[in-house]
Specification:
By secondary structure, this protein is α+β, with helices and mostly antiparallel strands. The chain has 6 helices and 10 strands. The two termini are 33 Å apart.
């Protein structure tokens, strides 16, 4: 699943391609909004909100999308309409065309009602105005359920928005925290939140998630996707296991030696 930094980059690319220009192509390929037509309206901006993306257009309307597991945005020169069956939305002007494929959510709503789509989210880790108050609010939200495993809590977008499975595993490794540690027992929880912000911010302008500082292919991560292989730090075999409730469980990776369970 794309994480917050992927969505930030997609929003930047969409903004550069569409903002300040009038739409000449508007093609919603989802049943609920198949009749919607935004042609003749100028795009005001494209902005990320956690893993959600908002494209605001003239007339007080917002196109809300979410990539879910396989969604992608592609920017192409203006041309013939795409015929790919995975296309869910096409927005374009005289120069550029934005094509959304396999999007998990596509909806059109009044801009004044955006909170219906994103109002439940916690502080956005890539908020350009990120500060200590937002970090403190994230910690407060995480502590609402102090008994919950930190590996599950970090994926709860209502606590803090933007973390996906890759960053969850890497953040906990870097902080030496076992994924099943209850939130209330995580030492320096504020430092976990701040590290999440720093990692997403460092990666937002490029494709891929680099947490080791090593850009070579296959060297990008400490533990994510490395089950059965030696820990890059201590050599212990990296473990993996499903975590979370059955319908929402995600695979978790950790090093048993670098991230020992608390007594």
């Amino acid at each position: 699943m794309p994480e917050g930094d992927n969505v930030w980059l997609a929003a930047r690319n969409l903004h550069r391609a569409l903002a300040g220009r009038t739409l000449t192509r508007s093609d919603f390929r989802v049943p609920r909004f198949a009749g919607a037509d935004l042609r003749g309206r100028a795009v005001l901006e494209a902005v990320p909100r956690g893993k959600h993306l908002l494209i605001r257009v003239e007339g007080g309307l917002t196109v809300h999308t979410h990539l879910r597991m396989e969604g992608r945005w592609h920017i192409r020169p203006a041309g013939p309409p795409p015929t790919d069956h995975r296309v869910r939305l096409v927005l374009g002007n005289a120069e550029q065309m934005a094509i959304g494929t396999s999007l998990g959510v596509v909806e059109l709503l009044r801009t004044e009602n955006e909170d219906q789509a994103v109002g439940h989210l916690g502080p956005d880790l890539l908020n350009p105005l990120w500060n200590g108050a937002l970090a403190t609010e994230s910690v407060r939200r995480l502590m609402v359920r102090p008994e919950r495993a930190i590996g599950e809590a970090l994926l709860d977008q209502a606590c803090l928005a933007g973390i996906g499975n890759v960053y969850k595993a890497e953040i906990l490794f870097l902080r030496g925290v076992h994924p099943w540690t209850p939130v209330q027992e995580v030492p320096e929880l504020a430092d976990v939140v701040e590290l999440a912000h720093r990692l997403l911010d460092a990666n937002k302008a490029r494709h891929g998630h680099i947490t080791t500082g090593d850009l070579r292919r296959g060297h990008e991560h400490w533990v994510y996707g490395r089950a059965g292989r030696p820990c890059r730090r201590c050599g212990t075999r990296v473990e993996r296991r499903d975590q979370g409730e059955a319908r929402q469980s995600r695979i978790t990776y950790w090093c048993p030696r670098c991230q020992p369970p608390r007594p």
